[in-house]
Amino acid sequence: MADPLATRRPTAVVIGASVSGLCAAAALAEYADVTLLERDTLPEGPEPRRGVPQARHAHLVWSGGVAAFDELLPGLVAESVARGARLVHIMGDMVSRAPNEIWFRRFTATHHRNLVCSRDLLDAVIRDRVLAHEHVTLRRNTTALSLAGDATRVTGVHIRTDACTHDHEDGNERDRGHCEETLTADLVVDASGRGSRAPVWLAALGLPQVAEREVNAGVAYATRLYRAPGATADGPFPLVNVQANPAKAPGRGGIILPVENGRWIVTLSGTRGGEPTGDSEAFADFALSLGDPVIGELIKDAEPLGDVVTTRSTANHRRYYEKMSHWPDGFTVVGDAVAGYNPVYGHGITVAVQSALAVRDALRSTRLTAPGVAQRLQRASTRPVAAAWDLAVGQDALYPGAADTPPTRLERSLSRFVDRAVATGARNPRALGALLDVMSLEKPATRLFSPDMLIPMLFGPRRPHLQGPPLTEAERETATS
Questions:
Q1: Is 146 exposed, middle or buried (0-12, 13-18, 19+ CB in 10 A)?
Q2: Domain with CATH 3.50.50.60 in the chain
């Protein structure tokens, strides 16, 4: 007798139309009919939405994410550029100061490119592409309440849909408020972000509590949108980044992100005791108070396009689902629901698309309905998390009060080595290539111990470090003309 699971197309439910949810839906659509659940009413174009308040701050996609996007959704990067995004050369199109206060030379020898645009634009491009897929169905205004099934197998998800309708006897539909139902599925994927209820849901099924860790440097963000000053909107202007120094708490930093439609997104950050506020009058003064005043100097006479917006939910928070000894079939967690990072490192989107790619690749060698496949997907999707986690925590754990326990001797030794790697990459293009391979999440951290890094680190030749931001006089004049 034929196996009915082998002859029908499997079904999957993805909770959350975030970047991680959309990418997971794209990965699964090759193998299943996917229902995407979203609490919000999604905008038609590149507009803000309630469920992504962090979208107002500066975002970028590292080159590891750029490559993953083009593998998962071929042509998406080119489409983003056609709609106003930019591929920014690292470091040629950047003015960047590392956490150890060393300015990078603007070498152009590496292949690394960041995809830079507003988060609203990137979300819109991804939405348009994924929701057009014939095997993806979106259910808006729908909230996941809990999992259906038991400790061995998740069979679906209990949901509530707002503003349901039903057929009235006159033939017209009527609003009847909330409706609750259960969606059955062969696989449920939680991509609901930092506020994920997966630990509670799994406990309700009788599974043990997942191990968690938090490293919270107490970073607060403040962002303001500006009209690109002077003639900077007429041509590419470098991304300007001043990173906070964890050795000098409170750490303060900031970034200017030139984006589409002649605008600059300016995001400032500060740790405990040095946080920026929502006071519009104090914004430029805070930028001038950074370790280098270059950002403040560039925006002090620029025209703001709205008020300052702030965020404080910036802790590095990880849930170790992949280490659980018991895991139910039919359930996987991805994206920020597994690990959320301090946004200053810009790795969240890159990890999301790399994790989705790992899910797709894992399903190429096994059926989605096979026993044990959910745990395999959980482990595969979590692998890209580790590199981003180690990079973020390696810096943030050095801030006072960031974690329950101080950094270990090994963590401090690794931090010192990374500082040396940054100092070497700042003035040597071969070493910079190795450093960016790791920072861009293209290669593992062992790349820092390759000859490309170690030979320049130990033997030189050593150019002198820059004494200030490598912004040319022409670029400064462009911003003030």
A1: middle
A2: 9-59+120-214+316-396
Q: How far apart are CA 219 and CA 340, in angstroms?
A: 14
Give tens-digit pLDDT for 193-237.
999 999 999 999 999 999 999 999 999 999 999 999 999 988 889
Region of residue 438 (phi > 0: left; psi between -120 and 50: alpha; otherwise: beta): alpha
Q: Tokens for 192?
A: 């609901």
Start and end residues for every CATH 3.30.70 domain found in the chain: 218-313
Bridge partner list, 255: 241, 267
Select from 386, 345, 85 the least CA-distant residue to 241: 345
Lowest mean pLDDT among 164-178, 264-278, 374-388: 164-178
Sequential DSSP letters for 446-470: GGGGSHHHHHHHHH---PPPPSS--
pLDDT digits (tens, 9 = 90+) for 325-338: 999 999 999 999 99
- Separation of alpha carbons 399 and 247, rounded Å: 8
Contact between 422 and 439 under an 8 Å Cβ cutoff? The reply is no
CATH 3.50.50.60 fits 9-59+120-214+316-396, yes or no: yes
What does the alpha-carbon distance between residue 30 and residue 133 come to, in Å, rounded to a whole number?
Answer: 10
pLDDT by residue (tens digit) across 239-266? 999 999 988 889 999 999 999 999 999 9
CA 352 and chain centroid, separation: 7
Please choose, from the candidates 313, 390, 322, 329, the residue with its C-alpha nearest in 3D space to the C-alpha of residue 355. Answer: 322
Grade residue 414 by pLDDT with cuts at 50, 70 and 90: confident
* Tokens 């998406």 sit on residue: 76
Q: Token pair for residue 283?
A: 């914004």
| Contact partners, residue 30, CB within 8 Å, separation at least 6 | 360, 363
For the segment(s) 218-313, the CATH number from 3.30.1490, 3.40.50, 1.10.287, 3.30.70 is 3.30.70
Evaluate the CA torsion angle 296, 301, 304, 307 in order and state its sign: positive
- Rounded to whole angstroms, the Cα distance separating 316 from 340 reads 5
Hey, what are 372's tokens? 């044990």
Report DSSP state, residue 443.
Answer: S
Q: What angle do CA 271, 118, 50 make, to 5 degrees?
A: 75
